[in-house]
Amino acid sequence: MKLQRMNRRALTLGALAVSGALALTACGSDDTGSKSSGGGSSASAGVANTSSIKCDNAKGQLLADGSSAQKNAIDAWTAAFSQACQGVQINYKGSGSGAGVTAFTQGQLAFAGSDSALKPEDVEASKKVCTGGGQGIDLPMVGGPIAVGYNLPGVDNLVLDATTLAKIFNSDIKTWDDPAIKKLNPNAKLPSTKISAFHRSDESGTTDNFTKYLKAAAPSVWGKYSGGKAWQAPGGQSAPQSAGVAQQVKQTAGAIGYFELSYAKDMTTAAIDTGASSPVKPSTDAASKAIADAKVVGTGKDLALKLNYTTKADGAYPMVLVTYEIVCDKGNKADTLPATKAFLGYIASTDGQSILTQNSYAPIPDAIISKVRTTIEGLS
């Protein structure tokens, strides 16, 4: 049948488009509010389910930029979306949350990604590009743990707590055999190697969330900093974007850095002692337990969340971030609105969200993502 030939061709294109590091598995029915043709269907391992994607006359090029933490998720979504909607070209640069928000408020993008919700001044600036009384809103779309990766041969099960982590990144703890680290790791053979702590050189929502955790959980060390997307502590070394920090940690003996879990492949990560019954390693399940405790604090159509960075619940990893897709609630450009709604509608769907766990991200809890889907439907 013609439909079968089209599906076989789409799957072939998808296999070529998705890299080995982004193997996809998705299942379930369309959950975007529009009816799917038939019930849910399972996808073969390594190939995304495209049955729920509704192109809805979407065409042209979507320019987007922002969070590098979600770049691997966007790449996976784009590969799947492009199978179904071949008239749309999505260009997401992943230059960092700060760059994305700035470009969006300057009218350069169809949507932006940010690991931090819009600030009041950002919302005000967005009103100049969201016509007809519209403004930028935050749509939570990607969750995940901020992993602390380290390069210390022979030490495979490092445990850190908030205060020790804060002292490392504040340049107060300088070697790996420091008594504070030894106390948390009594059975580890810690060398006297100098610690090379890497942070982001660009404005980053990952930095914002990482330092919000330090500020909330280690106020005695980090309380003096105001926080935000720009790194404020003295010392350390820097690299651009999550990929840059991860690469520096991989190639530098004694290094430590923070980045979204999908960048921690082939790297050892620290477990965090939160005061729960046992230290918690970064994982999508552990992040989901923390994100489920988040509260919606945005008003109107804005769905900004407040995360609980000091959770002590067993199995909950406290160092999490949520990436928002930022778009105009109304007043979007007419030539990009259909494609924007189609792409955002897909990534918020059950099939879109199910891709996340295959790429070391955490899906947004149902109670929140259902509101996101409704909001996307009403974009104009």
TrEMBL record:
Domain of life: Bacteria
SUPFAM superfamilies recorded: Periplasmic binding protein-like II (SSF53850)
Signal recorded as keyword: yes
Domain PBP: 58-349
UniProt key word Ribosomal protein: no
Cited InterPro entries: ABC_phos-bd_PstS, PBP_domain, Phosphate-bind_PstS
Family label: Belongs to the PstS family.
Listed name of the protein: Phosphate-binding protein
Gene symbol of the encoding locus: pstS
